[in-house]
Design a protein that fits this description.
4 copies of one chain form a homotetramer.
Chain A lengths: L2 H4 L2 H32 L2 H7 L4 H8 L2 H21 L8 H18 L1 H12 L9 H24 L8 H17 L1 H7 L7 H19 L2
Helix pairs in contact in A: 2-3, 2-5, 2-7, 5-8, 6-7, 6-8, 6-9, 6-11, 8-9, 9-11
Chain B binds a DNA duplex (21 and 21 nucleotides) through helix 2 and helix 4.
Protein name (chains A, B, C, D): TetR family transcriptional regulator
Pfam families (chains A, B, C, D): TetR_C_29 (PF17938), TetR_N (PF00440)
Organism (chains A, B, C, D): Paracoccus versutus
Amino acid sequence: MTAEAKTPQRTKHRTRDAEATKARILKAALNEFSRNGLGGARVDVIAEKADANKRMLYHYFGSKEELFQTVLENAYIDIRDAEQKLDLDHLPPKEALERLVRFTWEYYLKHPEFITLVNSENLHRAKHLKKSEIVKIYSRRFVSMVDTILQRGVASGEFRPGIDPVQLNITIAAIGYYYLTNRFTGSIIFERDLMAKEALEERLRFNIDTILRLVSA
Amino acid sequence: MTAEAKTPQRTKHRTRDAEATKARILKAALNEFSRNGLGGARVDVIAEKADANKRMLYHYFGSKEELFQTVLENAYIDIRDAEQKLDLDHLPPKEALERLVRFTWEYYLKHPEFITLVNSENLHRAKHLKKSEIVKIYSRRFVSMVDTILQRGVASGEFRPGIDPVQLNITIAAIGYYYLTNRFTGSIIFERDLMAKEALEERLRFNIDTILRLVSA
Amino acid sequence: MTAEAKTPQRTKHRTRDAEATKARILKAALNEFSRNGLGGARVDVIAEKADANKRMLYHYFGSKEELFQTVLENAYIDIRDAEQKLDLDHLPPKEALERLVRFTWEYYLKHPEFITLVNSENLHRAKHLKKSEIVKIYSRRFVSMVDTILQRGVASGEFRPGIDPVQLNITIAAIGYYYLTNRFTGSIIFERDLMAKEALEERLRFNIDTILRLVSA
Amino acid sequence: MTAEAKTPQRTKHRTRDAEATKARILKAALNEFSRNGLGGARVDVIAEKADANKRMLYHYFGSKEELFQTVLENAYIDIRDAEQKLDLDHLPPKEALERLVRFTWEYYLKHPEFITLVNSENLHRAKHLKKSEIVKIYSRRFVSMVDTILQRGVASGEFRPGIDPVQLNITIAAIGYYYLTNRFTGSIIFERDLMAKEALEERLRFNIDTILRLVSA
DNA sequence: AATGAATGAGTGTTCATTCAT
DNA sequence: AATGAATGAACACTCATTCAT
């Protein structure tokens, strides 16, 4: 971050603005993509929200799709980073698992953009994620993290053996993700406000219970 | 303007074509909407796939959105109808529940359109489903079906009491739906082909196990 | 009107229905054309308003434009017929002229369709009227009617000589027609409700005065 | 976003093209709208005539209707501006009035678009003019101009008192406007070429005569 | 005589992207 | 680095008219 030592003052200013512009564009794009999906998002709207010129968007990101890919990558990196910070290895297995379920639920709740982004990407058969090497690396770390918890639980006798960490991972995500991504149709089908404060708390309890029953010896 | 005037069995000739055209349009629309979502679907493509004139589409369905609503409604009616036909009330509770989990999974597998349709509808905050009275009626029947199974299970001592049938319903759907809707990103993240025959069978076993552990006394 | 003497009973029925259908179509077309002009009128709307099948419209009138021509012809015949019925030849010249001004004004007021139809026809450079022989015949009678009044007025010493009956005709029409056809923009420009009862009465008085001052010796 | 930012005389380069494009679109739109009315006008044709991209039309004017409104507003401003430039206050009342009648006639002759535009707007019940504040301001100035002439004429004893300037205004417009807007049907009805040079001159003389007789003491 | 299903050419409008400065 | 004008292909939707019965 000692840019001034390397570059003349004029350049420094330009660089700082450039980074800020990129950041504003990314933020606006995340918002627009998550609201309307890749297809429904409008480049003009992103540029306007970012208070940037449309041309800049193309200058920095190449195209709408490449911008989407960057936004998607960042979203995956964000959640994986947050998961790593949970520091589950220092907790007893049961607590670690409960904490992960809770974290997953709360992350989805705080970041509904993540869910819409992933849905959009699956509508497009993951063509953008396929190109992202970094996401794969982060993902491996995540799976091994859950695997470690499982192994510790089996060793302590709390968890039953033979549980596939991938299946468990998927199920932990599923029971939160599905509830939230389908909150609109769900609220109609089940004739209750799935997003009411108490409903959310009840769901979290139900999910923790589901996972613990699933793994317990 | 009555329904019988539109589909009388006698006056085959005049109406047969109309009904056939409507059916072709609906089929093509289901295909196109599920492939590309509401926003990404193209009216021209639907008409072409249906081997019908675009004008007919508007004649019968009013607009792209109304067509989507009809398609969506039909999709919900189809799954609810199929569920009713399972005749779970004559099975022992455990078997009934297992059968429901299996059915849900297999229905999603056979009807990936249903999943994409629901995702699309949630992206639009369920604005179309809100207008559909019939779907609400069908949904109530479905929830009470699961509730009956739970009650029978509690009575027989196999299931523990106090399980919310809505939460259970959501979880049964979630663990299948999430796996399949995110099969593209999932296959990358977890570096395995989630759609391989064996993977699918394994997931079904895992899901049945999850649900039975969740409800068992 | 002794159709039954000429045609067998079965035919009579058909004829009566046919005439009724034609009449309903013409009425509906007059309404729709005068509301929206030739270009803005919708064939579907005409058929619906007439409670007739669209095909009938084409069967009887050939095309939208030919239908418009018929409607227009009828409109001209109607006003010319009404003018002839005024029987102005038996009134003193001044009274005859006043009565004509009054009649013209009131006819336009009662038949706003006539005005819109004529405007529409002029937008199309009178291409439909050109084809109508009958309108020309009726028009001649009308001009000579006004000419007779003028001549009688000159003979009696009330009117000054040398007034062109065509110019007078045009002016009589103009001062009523313009006021009414431009009633919407006029009400804005002059910031008063030109269609209020009193405004209409005032305008009629003003117009009669204008014409009498114009011709008086 | 300020007006001076859009048309600065210095920064010619960037804005000149934009302003020129806007001007070309407006000119083409005036032409197309006056030829075919609002409904009959084609956006494609306007863009083509303007040698501009259709997208620009929407960029600058929002929609076909908003473009129409701008064209209409400009037309009203143009005629009101021209009227103000007549400088009638420095002429004797009679001459001022004659000059106004002559001007009105000649303006309509030179600007047949104005007439068609106004007709189109009245077909749409003045919905666009209603929104235009500027036109109302200009109109007030116009009415008071005629009022001043009348008052001066009454004061000099040339004109009779009690003439409503609005009625006079309407009549001055009417006797020219009607003749010209209905020149196509009129030429058929009266079986004479209303647009022949001599016919036009005769009509102007007739109109001046009509107005002077109307106001003279 | 009457019907309603069907059509192709168009209608206003919007889009992601590029050009000139 | 940044801008705003410009584009062409596509978009949902509509029209007057004809076909099959």
